[in-house]
Amino acid sequence: MGFFDKLKSGLKKTKDFLVKPVNALFSSADRVDDDFYEELFDLLVASDVGVEVSEEIVDKLRQSLKEKKIKEIPPAKEEFKKILYEMIGEDVPLNIRDKTVILVVGVNGVGKTTSIGKISLLLKNQGKRVMLCGADTFRAAAIEQLKVWAGCSEVPMISQSEGADPAAVVFDAVGAAKKQNIDVLIVDTAGRLHNKKNLIDELSKINRVISREWPEAGRETLLVLDAVTGQNGLIQAREFTKVVNVDGIVLTKLDGTAKGGIVLAIRRMLGIPVKLIGVGEGVDDLQPFSGHDFISAMFED
Ligand SMILES: Nc1nc2c(ncn2[C@@H]2O[C@H](COP(=O)(O)OP(=O)(O)OP(=O)(O)O)[C@@H](O)[C@H]2O)c(=O)[nH]1
Ligand SMILES: [Mg+2]
Predict the structure, then answer these.
(1) SS3 of 260, please?
(2) How many structural domains does the chain have?
(3) By residue range, what is the domain housing residue 206?
(4) Atom of ligand 1 nearest to the CA of 117
(5) Ligand nearest to the CA of residue 224, numbered in listed order
(6) H and E: helices and strands count for the chain
């Protein structure tokens, strides 16, 4: 199955919950009136698009139909899709320069380690020399889990034992990456830190080590969010953006939720592009995000 089909089946819950009722609304209405807008707004909010963004979508639709003097339902639906697409914004791919360090952050259980495994395979298949770094030293199982992924993708991995200083592991990994002429070093970090100060201290220390030891390397910091948490993911994201400079979002577990509307809110509310989306646990189930494919997959049967 190609990724577009996976995306379609992965979005099934969101489609049942949001798109089907939206389609039903468009097909049952004979004109677009205030009741119609109100119902559309309610459906968007229920699918975790969020009040602010739902309001914006409905207002834009109202304005655009008025400007273009559209009264019929089929062109109104096309306008609606166009507005959703604009809301998502231009696709922004992973920024991989000649030498790049990807730092992967996010709270516990969102899918960081799994995503790293999948990204390593994506990049390796593009001919990049990839190395993994197990800087989640909080528990031994985390290091073991990353090792399994390194094995699957057949890429080298640098780690130390549980409890080691994460910045020290990063120091080792950068040294090894330079020596082995690695193109992309991907760093796994711990999600479960005791408090925000811990998180700030740990991530700043890691960042300092990378900048000092490999100043010429490009940097890409990815924040992993679990789509199942819906709007709460935005709150998490804001906490992280106070601590690190986030370049892109990896949105996982879209297959497990009806809250896929969150995709529409992320760019708008955070100003950060979704760069990759995950629609399952399989190795091919995480792919670069395409706004066009996302909207098409949502509205196609
Ligand atoms: N259904 C589904 N499951 C996913 C997806 N991405 C990750 N998972 C699952 O989510 C679980 C947690 O993933 P991890 O990669 O261990 O998460 P983590 O952020 O590294 O967790 P910690 O290391 O504990 O902070 C695993 O069982 C993954 O298989 C996805 O897109 N869809
Ligand atoms: Mg992990």
Answers:
(1) coil
(2) 2
(3) 100-246
(4) 15
(5) 1
(6) 13, 8
